[in-house]
Design a protein that fits this description.
With about 200 residues, the chain is an alpha/beta fold. Helices cover about 40% and strands about 15% of the residues. Helix 2 runs parallel beside helix 7. The two termini are about 25 Å apart. The model has no long low-confidence stretch (mean pLDDT about 95). Keywords: Hydrolase. It holds the Pfam family Isochorismatase.
Length: about 200
């Protein structure tokens, strides 16, 4: 993937995707969850300081899960267990990376951040051209959203150590071989340096 020549903080957004208690507590080991939360919290702070817009994306459903079709095998299991109802404790964004006043939270009902949401409209309204993606899981929301955003002509950066997967091998293959076909892949520390340079 060709590197983005000039990083413009004010035309960039950091997407914090699916950093919800249920996902952190059930799909990652305790150590993996602690590591990814620490990296992402640092990246979020740097993004705010650099005037990079921070936008949150979560998965959530109304009571009774009317958004879930019985034809959807993955989400049907969520409906049967009554999980991820909007406002429920397990649906909350983890407090280590929680939104500040005025920061947007997009609620989605499928895997990808752009699927049936108004995210693209909000980004274009705010003249956002570059997306930095941090999400759980790498094989879920990150992979889906990168491909959707690529088709929508955004410049893309994946913060590799701000993403994680239940299977570390899957995360490694995606960040080293698959995602670089559509996005730059960097560490949080590398991105923070670019943000600082972009504000000078």
């Amino acid at each position: 993937m060709t590197a983005i020549k000039k990083f413009e903080p004010t035309n960039s957004a950091l997407l914090i995707m699916d950093y919800q208690r249920l996902i952190l507590e059930n799909y990652l080991s305790e150590k993996a969850a602690a590591d990814v939360l620490a990296k992402t919290a640092t990246l979020v702070d740097a993004a705010r300081a650099a005037d990079v817009k921070v936008i949150y994306v979560t998965v959530g459903f109304r009571e009774g899960h009317p958004e879930i079709s019985s034809k959807n095998a993955l989400f049907s299991a969520i409906r049967e267990k009554g999980l991820l109802v909007t406002g429920a404790p397990e649906s909350a964004i983890h407090p280590d990376v929680s939104p500040q006043a005025g920061e947007l939270v997009i609620i989605k009902h499928r895997i990808g951040a752009f699927s049936f949401t108004d995210l693209d409209m909000i980004l274009k309204t705010n003249d956002i051209q570059t997306l930095i993606m941090a999400g759980l899981t790498t094989s879920g929301v990150v992979l889906s959203s990168v491909r959707q955003a690529f088709d929508l002509d955004y410049n893309l950066i994946v913060a590799a150590d701000c993403c994680a997967d239940a299977d570390e091998a899957t995360h490694s293959v995606l960040t080293n071989s698959i995602l670089p076909q559509h996005a730059e892949v960097q560490t949080a520390d590398e991105l923070i340096k670019r943000m600082i340079a972009g504000t000078n």
